[in-house]
Amino acid sequence: MARVEPQFKQLTHSYGFDDVAIVPGDVTLNPDQTNIFFQLSSLTFTIPIVAAAMDAVVDPAFAVHFSRMGGMAVLNLEGVQSRYQNTEEVVRGIVQAPVSDVTGVLQKVYSEPIKESLVGERVRHIKEGGGICAVSMTPSNTKRLSAVAAEAGADVVVVQATVTTARHISKSYNGLVFSELRHSLPLNIPIVVGNCVTYRTALELMRNGIDAVMVGVGPGAACTTREVLGVGVPQVTATIECTAAREVYFKETGRYVALITDGGIRNGGDLCKAMACGADAVMLGSTLARTQEAPGQGYHWGMANPHPALPRGTRIKVGTTGSLEQVLFGPTVVTDGTQNLVGALKTAMGMCGAFTIRDMQKVDMVIAPSIKTEGKAYQLSGAR
Amino acid sequence: MARVEPQFKQLTHSYGFDDVAIVPGDVTLNPDQTNIFFQLSSLTFTIPIVAAAMDAVVDPAFAVHFSRMGGMAVLNLEGVQSRYQNTEEVVRGIVQAPVSDVTGVLQKVYSEPIKESLVGERVRHIKEGGGICAVSMTPSNTKRLSAVAAEAGADVVVVQATVTTARHISKSYNGLVFSELRHSLPLNIPIVVGNCVTYRTALELMRNGIDAVMVGVGPGAACTTREVLGVGVPQVTATIECTAAREVYFKETGRYVALITDGGIRNGGDLCKAMACGADAVMLGSTLARTQEAPGQGYHWGMANPHPALPRGTRIKVGTTGSLEQVLFGPTVVTDGTQNLVGALKTAMGMCGAFTIRDMQKVDMVIAPSIKTEGKAYQLSGAR
Amino acid sequence: MARVEPQFKQLTHSYGFDDVAIVPGDVTLNPDQTNIFFQLSSLTFTIPIVAAAMDAVVDPAFAVHFSRMGGMAVLNLEGVQSRYQNTEEVVRGIVQAPVSDVTGVLQKVYSEPIKESLVGERVRHIKEGGGICAVSMTPSNTKRLSAVAAEAGADVVVVQATVTTARHISKSYNGLVFSELRHSLPLNIPIVVGNCVTYRTALELMRNGIDAVMVGVGPGAACTTREVLGVGVPQVTATIECTAAREVYFKETGRYVALITDGGIRNGGDLCKAMACGADAVMLGSTLARTQEAPGQGYHWGMANPHPALPRGTRIKVGTTGSLEQVLFGPTVVTDGTQNLVGALKTAMGMCGAFTIRDMQKVDMVIAPSIKTEGKAYQLSGAR
Amino acid sequence: MARVEPQFKQLTHSYGFDDVAIVPGDVTLNPDQTNIFFQLSSLTFTIPIVAAAMDAVVDPAFAVHFSRMGGMAVLNLEGVQSRYQNTEEVVRGIVQAPVSDVTGVLQKVYSEPIKESLVGERVRHIKEGGGICAVSMTPSNTKRLSAVAAEAGADVVVVQATVTTARHISKSYNGLVFSELRHSLPLNIPIVVGNCVTYRTALELMRNGIDAVMVGVGPGAACTTREVLGVGVPQVTATIECTAAREVYFKETGRYVALITDGGIRNGGDLCKAMACGADAVMLGSTLARTQEAPGQGYHWGMANPHPALPRGTRIKVGTTGSLEQVLFGPTVVTDGTQNLVGALKTAMGMCGAFTIRDMQKVDMVIAPSIKTEGKAYQLSGAR
Which one of the listed residues A133, A196, A223, A277 is annotated catalytic? Predict the structure, then answer.
């Protein structure tokens, strides 16, 4: 009997935002020298921030407002906006539900069928307000809803699931073929697809002709994906993986596919780190749910697979802490990094000598022990 | 005098469930495409879940019920079932003991002698109810009790100790020789042996002809093995070690020995990770003790070495949180991963493109920083 | 199409004070054998401790007092001392502001213009009291304020920003060229520049002719740089990096540039570790803010970029715990390492067999798990 | 100018008890097969446990009692026993002091001069009670006190300081030369020296002819050495280092020098791990201070350098939890590993297939994530 060598499964290390820090550069810039635009195919946004496709964050009015500030807001076409005419009342029902009932309420709210007429109406609302209209849907609804939305004038189509791959096998519907989707939509409508976290999946998606990849599976926590399923890759590693794919694809084809890191970003520091990992933009949920303009009325809730058998979303109170303008541009008196995100990004870029986001993607980072909250008072001497 | 080179003891890294996460696959499946059967020699179970041989989890009625759901329940032949005719009263005594007395009460309860007549009675109860009857015992009682149980119709024999090896040296009894045990029992009765945590021990056990290995020493905590004795290997590493042994043994002999990861599994995420480490099934204790059908009446207790000199078990209140069906198959409104375990496994397998448990054993995992409970509210943006 | 190899961003590990411990030496000394002087160009200080250029720590009276004790106190020329004639009243306003108003109050206080006449006055106050006068300013004000201060008799010029590099690019002012600054000031006035954290930046600064480098970006926490911007390197790694630069520069030129680790030092243990990383001195803020002689009246506040758009400083209550003499030299009854810092350093040096700070810079350190506060009571047996 | 390569200080990893776990063996033994004697030169102790030379742990009566149980108790000749005739009253003063005064009280108590007459009296008390008499002192008092104690009949001399090396340089007294000490004492009196934590220091001490080395600098916490001074090496790494030295020295000379791990041992798990690192015995403080027989009356205090300038000891309430017999041999109803230490060691040795401590020193260990106390209730399924 020949001896067989044992093979032990190898585990590689992965990192989240709390595990890393950005290393200042050899050259510094004044923040006003930096430029932070975000290019998505032929569309240019002046700030690299995307508002998450969640009912507590984006409704048509918010989308118009957010567009004017320079960012891209994504309207979820499978949320309350396309299921109900009067969404305010529905949201109020979610917000006011007792804690013990909230999962049941969410399950009920999201079981109401989607109406195509409402899809068109919401898109037109945003366009008429002068906004850029980005809409999101899950793969199984993409063919139907993307066509309706494009017809109504949508500017960007976002296809998003917990995990997205170029090949999905299903009994219940034909898997969405992204290369076909690309052909079915006008070329001036960028297609954004997510979420993924690995080099190979990102590269394969890019090779299907899509225009941007969303990065992130289970990085947060109100999304209990990691507890329930054990699946997830922390955002620093996930973004670094997908960045490697973008660069390979860019060298191979000359086509630049944008990366949007989605999930787990709590403050300016996290946002800056996402860029330092290679992101072109970030998607924010709870940070924006806390603005006065958000439809969530101080609450936020996960919409993940709200089917009766395996709920993974929950509702949390986030409070309302300031205006959208303060959160994005300041001025602010809070010192925890949740406001003036644009100022924070430009300041960090200055410290790193990065003129553009493209420069910022190349700065050094270190694995650093977490900042402990306790004992902060004793660590003041470096403050300046 | 020749110079002697110093040798420093080398320590390798080991990992538990909280330290790792599963990486999604390059292909995804709809969960209904997946198949999660668990094969133990000639027995096929439709779900890869084993109910722990503990008095708060499995009594004959529970075993029948659990069999119908597709899993394997193990009745402990050294627990109250084989010591007392009227077990309900005994359990009530444990459950109602004041905290300060509970270790003493446990010590007393488990010093009552085992009655062979009760062993036969319990086995027949399960068989007559239509259940698959798996019974467990410690090595020193195995010859005697396995014969009685087999005679009464038991389907599976589980030999279990805190640490099990193929060679045990003792003054007080002749060590159990597993190859002899294999010959003494009918071939259609699979022998499951545990617990072990290393490549070498697992391989040696397999070479003694047993049919499944249980993996885990001191992974949990109410089992205070690690505090009291310092001995223990975290479950991810332990399962990976034993998996390497199974694959080597399979390549050498063509015989597939199943691995059952036992201990430390708190939710669907842990269950999925155990499979991703190479397990064929998992053994659950406290998760099942919380079902309405469990005999523990909302409590759970360790039965480890309940001798007067070194108690290592303790009693904890786990509460009763739902029916067995909910815990296994949902529907559920809890979002912490403790219910709908089968749904969770199938969903995770879908995300990983795994049609079978055998595929799931090969997915990638990363070492990932623990999810911190605090601050969860600020990490919502990835929820979908 | 040629295959392109993916490049994944590499992350190196970095460490802070809590992550390391000093290894005792092969030889031990009695503490009274050790010598801890700090040499800054032609100036010799008998203790290697620098009082931070913060309004809660150093005013002219404190500077005089601290000089007599053997250390170097730095007066911030952009703080209240150069903006207000009557600083006590202004400090009282900061100290007494309600928590909700404090950021606003700080923003207002530090928007009052700097008066050159006050700069001269403060410098003369210190010199007339017999103190060594070190003054600090930010790069954009350096040309103007350093000239005024030098004229008035200042002994040391400290140029300090959150991140300092040899090349800063700005639209609004010509970047400060350190080699020109060196030529514009009398040679007997050492120039101290900071803060930096990397080998390359430190080396480049040294090559511009400066006399000491301050080490540290975002190591503390009341300075919320790392949360807001994500930028920062823990102090152990930062000091080790800059030490490597100092040694290279020393070997290349024979000129020894001192390193002052600034920030994050909470107790004698941290101070000793900074030295063991290669520092020649440490800058202390909150530790000194807690002395009876400090102007902060039991409070401390960050002065970082107090502009309306992105505040990064905050005010904390530190309390008043003893005299400056006790903090530096004891005697003390506190056992947490915040008093008798000089005694601690000399004792640690004795344990390491280090006669001088230069020797102490070479001792071994290990990466050690953090001391957990909880459970301390159970770890007493090593106490002696 | 030649290019100089930068040298960055290298940091190696170190580990404490909480960071590691023992791997079970390929063979198992019944605990009654194991033998745990501890050999110190010509003295044989039946259990490998040394009672710490601290006033709250060992007085002459305790030493007699502990000897009868098979262990070695060390009487501190610089504690209250050699300073006061009536020690009970002095201890009561320490125990009853208000928290705010305790450091001052300790400083005062330990400034009373040592009386040689009391040294003799205490030694004779132990010998007349039939105990083995081990006495400890610091290096500067060793010549004087060891002679007095040997004269009175002491069996073992322990020389102990926070850090001990073979070469100590001092202005105030001639460094203790251990090779001279060896010659000055009868050969049948073993000399135990500590504390040290590195390979080189341990080896050098052994080469001076001493009989045992105590391992540990700053491992605990009530001993605030690491906070105050930054100096310390965690016990697992320290013991592994000194073990390497013992083995080298043994191979070179054939002489076996015992290792006693001192400090940081809180329960049976830690004790077993110390042995698995290579220790021959462990010194216990707070664990024994909690026995009914201990002189500390439910309190414990550090005696480290109780001089007025740099106190490093503190007083903690440990409570009285059981008899010495229970702590050493059980029976016990506590499940946290603080009682029946001997039973725990023998059980762990059985799991590892170790017949003797010498075998136990060679078992495998892994670096394992800490057991988190929280969530224990959910990790019960492995209990057996």
Answer: A223
